[in-house]
């Protein structure tokens, strides 16, 4: 195929996908079939990356002891975050569920290589952070491809990146980007959970252009 045209129906469905993609924290126990997980990784790897460096590394966390250690680390970081909020916000914070670590059947940690040999440094001289941004794009590809297949993804950032690297025994040169909970959501929703809980809401100004 030399080019591809997308139908109006497809564009409508893509819009639905963007609307229904959620950060998921409540999962069914049912595992996602292996070929589907492999397919998601494949889609993630199609993301754009600076210099075609593909700096992301997706790690399947399957070992129970490591998972437990990650969960304990989350609880430690969550308690510390909770303690820093002023009293009124702290009360609301305590009511939020900020990870699906206990119920998600799959844990996927995403790291990146800060100085990847692949891509030969192209595009990074003035903006070395572009490797991080490339990794975010791979995660977002993964997230959208998962949503399209009825699979939920929850991004957990309430973790210490160095501790997480140690628990997972990754290459000490890699840096942590995300810890993803993956599985079938208990209740798909059109509204972000933080909006449902009145923590924050999407602001219309963020979909307005700024002109200069
Ligand atoms: C970089 C990043 C880090 C996030 N970290 C967390 C987290 O630690 N815990 C959590 O519950 N949600 C986390 N989220 C999810 C956001 O809270 C969520 O995307 C936002 O509330 C909007 O909801 P939606 O993704 O369902 O549209 C994170 C999202 C991003 C992009």
Automatic annotation (TrEMBL):
Xref: NCBIfam families: BluB
InterPro entries listed in its UniProt record: BluB, Nitroreductase, Nitroreductase-like, Nitroreductase/BluB
Species this protein is from: Sorlinia euscelidii
UniProt protein name: Cob(II)yrinic acid a,c-diamide reductase
SUPFAM superfamilies (UniProt xref): FMN-dependent nitroreductase-like (SSF55469)
Domain Nitroreductase span(s) in chain numbering: 18-184
One Pfam family matching this protein: Nitroreductase
Highest taxon listed in the record's lineage: Bacteria
């Amino acid at each position: 195929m030399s080019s591809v045209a997308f139908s109006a129906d497809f564009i409508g469905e893509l819009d639905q996908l963007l609307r229904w993609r959620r950060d998921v924290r409540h999962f069914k126990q049912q595992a996602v079939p292996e070929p589907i997980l492999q397919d998601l990784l494949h889609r993630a790897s199609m993301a754009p990356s600076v210099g075609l460096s593909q700096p992301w590394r997706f790690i399947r966390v399957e070992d129970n002891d490591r998972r437990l250690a990650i969960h304990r680390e989350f609880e430690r970081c969550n308690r510390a975050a909770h303690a820093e909020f002023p009293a009124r916000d702290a009360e609301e914070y305590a009511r939020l569920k900020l990870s699906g670590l206990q119920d998600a059947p799959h844990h996927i940690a995403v790291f990146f290589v800060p100085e990847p040999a692949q891509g030969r440094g192209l595009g990074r001289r003035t903006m070395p952070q572009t490797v991080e941004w490339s990794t975010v794009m791979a995660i977002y590809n993964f997230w959208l491809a998962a949503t399209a297949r009825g699979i939920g993804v929850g991004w957990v950032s309430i973790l210490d990146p160095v501790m997480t690297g140690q628990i997972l025994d990754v290459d000490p040169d890699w840096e942590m980007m995300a810890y993803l909970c993956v599985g079938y959501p208990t209740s798909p929703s059109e509204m972000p959970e933080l909006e449902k809980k009145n923590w924050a809401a999407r602001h219309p100004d963020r979909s307005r252009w700024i002109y200069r």
